[in-house]
Amino acid sequence: MTITIAHLTRRFGETEVLRGIDLSVEKGELVALLGPSGSGKTTLLKIIAGLDWPDAGVLEVNGEDWLQKKAQDRRIGFVFQNYALFPHMTVRDNIAFGLTVRPRETRPAPAAIAGKVTELLQFLQIPQLADRFPAELSGGQRQRVALGRAMAIAPELLLLDEPFGALDAQVRRDLRRWLREVLQQAGSTTIFVTHDQEEAFELADRVVVMGAGRIEQVGRPEEIHDHPATPFVARFLGMTVELPVTLHAGRAGAPGLDTASLPRVAMADGPAMLFLRPTDITPVPDPQGRFTVADVTSTGALLRLRLKDDLTSAEPEIEIARRLAPPLRAGTRIHLRPEAGRLFPATAGIPPAVAPAIKALKESSL
Ligand SMILES: Nc1ncnc2c1ncn2[C@@H]1O[C@H](COP(=O)(O)OP(=O)(O)OP(=O)(O)O)[C@@H](O)[C@H]1O
Q1: What is the structure's pLDDT at 113?
Q2: Distances (CA, A) of 276 to 125, 228, 248, 335
Q3: Is the distance from the beta carbon of residue 194 to the nearest atom of ligand 1 less than 6 Å?
Q4: I want to staple 150 with a disulfide (CB 3.0 to 4.6 A). Which of 36, 41, 77, 269 is the partner?
Q5: Which CATH number belongs to the domain containing residue 100 in this structure?
């Protein structure tokens, strides 16, 4: 199945929750909708599921207008964050549910339903749980059952809303690996919502980054990680250090920055902002350095340094592997050597908070 979404908009009262979404999903793809809380991910998922309707726009599946179809006619498997299993039914009956409630004409015979459920229990690696009730399961096990229930109807499309949201980190990681295998084997087209970038990157073939009702970027995980398209995506993906620089012949420069490791870029000369991950910056002790170490904390493997930028008064935080760190303590002056980063023109939708920093840099280079 191919899904085509075009110019989709949705508002609730005064709030524009989706502001023109364009997206296509190919058969068998695993797509993550990634974005901060309130960016419209769930609303988009609900519209695809037929649980909500847009104000305008197109939703077609295999060329068919899905906005004319009711939820129950869309052959969708939906898994919510709170797994909502039926508490009074066993695991086996929960998984069978979608088949047993079909109208008589399309309902498989009881033996066929039992066979299908047994097959799914094997496939999901939970046959030992068949006769338990939801209250007797762990969160991760419940989530597997919820997926089994969604898959029982052989859905054309699986929609998962924060499927691992309520689980602890280790269980999430285990389930992720498991889910990826299960979905690959099943060949299902799947769209899932998450605000966790690690989850999106590890699971998805393609990631759709959403911010405030718009799609900011669509791409393969590595593409998005290495080349965030907008300042919003850069920040959301953890490039939290923002330094004003001046571009000259494709090279970024600024006092106190050794930018020799950064590749040349095809951008016009002038002011720009350099976005960096805290772990992509090497501090180099330098008595003339522009930055002063304000504070050093250890997280075990990493040293986290809070710096004071003498030029802009900003207080960027950087991280360095403890075993690689030069001797540093509060008061040490340093310059910075970014190893990788992303440049945006100073005007590329960067909020006014950094404008004073750009002004300070310009004045310093006069
Ligand atoms: N039925 C509704 N009535 C009014 N406002 C709504 C309704 N549903 C969602 N919203 C608003 O729409 C915006 C987007 O919500 P949505 O649930 O789609 O975001 P999200 O990206 O999935 O966020 P989260 O990760 O927190 O679930 C939010 O500001 C929310 O308050």
Answers
A1: 92
A2: 42, 11, 19, 15
A3: no
A4: 77
A5: 3.40.50.300
CA-only gyration radius of the chain, Å: 25
Question: Are 250 and 207 contained in the same domain?
Answer: no
DSSP-derived letter for residue 365 is: T
Write phi, then psi, for 133 (nearest 5 degrees). -100, 155
Local structure of residue 27 (DSSP, 8 states): T
Which amino acid is located at 78 in the chain?
F
Q: Please indicate whether residue 259, judged by its CB atom, sits closer than 6 Å to ligand 1.
A: no
**198, 279: one domain:** no
Q: What mean pLDDT comes out for the span 125-141?
A: 91
Any atom of ligand 1 within 6 Å of the Cβ of 14: no
Question: What mean pLDDT comes out for the span 21-31?
Answer: 95
Sign for the pseudo-dihedral over CA of 113, 118, 122, 127: positive
pLDDT higher than 90, residue 325: no
Instruction: From residue 167, give the alpha-carbon distance in Å to each of 132, 138, 175, 218.
Output: 20, 10, 10, 27
Top-confidence residue, 101 or 171: 101
178 & 242 share domain: no
Residue range(s) defining the domain that contains residue 250 = 238-364
Give this prediction's pTM.
0.86
43 CA to middle of ligand 1, Å? Answer: 6
CB 158 within 8 A of CB 190: yes
Q: What is the ipTM of this complex?
A: 0.94
Between CA 56 and CA 8 the distance in angstroms is 6
Tokens of 63: 């060329």
Q: What percent of the chain is predicted at pLDDT more than 70?
A: 94
39 lines ligand 1 (CB under 6 A): yes
Q: How many domains, in total, are found in the chain?
A: 2
Average pLDDT (356-365) is 57
**160: which strand partners?**
79, 192
DSSP-assigned states of every residue in 134-200: GGGS-HHHHHHHHHHHHHHT--SEEEEESTTTTS-HHHHHHHHHHHHHHHHHHT-EEEEEES-HHHH
